[in-house]
Write a structure and sequence with these properties.
Layout: H1 10-18, E1 26-31, E2 35-40, E3 46-50
Antiparallel strand pairs: 1-2, 2-3
Length: about 50
C-alpha cells in the first residue's frame, strides 16, 4: 500500500505542475488513465486533473 503523504513521482509532478498546481502541496490519491485525483496536504481539498 502506498504511503499516505508520499511525494508524487516525476511524471505525476509534471502533470500536477502543468495544471497550475504546486507539486509540493498536492498528493496523488488515485492515478487513472486520463486523469489524476489529487488532495491538498493542508486544506484537504480534492481535485480531478487531466493528464
Amino acid at each position: 500500500m502506498a504511503q499516505k503523504n508520499a511525494s508524487p513521482t516525476k511524471e505525476q509532478a509534471k502533470v500536477i505542475e502543468r495544471n497550475g498546481l504546486n507539486k509540493l502541496t498536492w498528493v496523488v490519491i488515485q492515478d487513472l488513465n486520463h486523469s489524476m485525483i489529487v488532495r491538498h496536504r493542508i486544506t484537504g481539498e480534492v481535485k480531478v486533473i487531466d493528464k
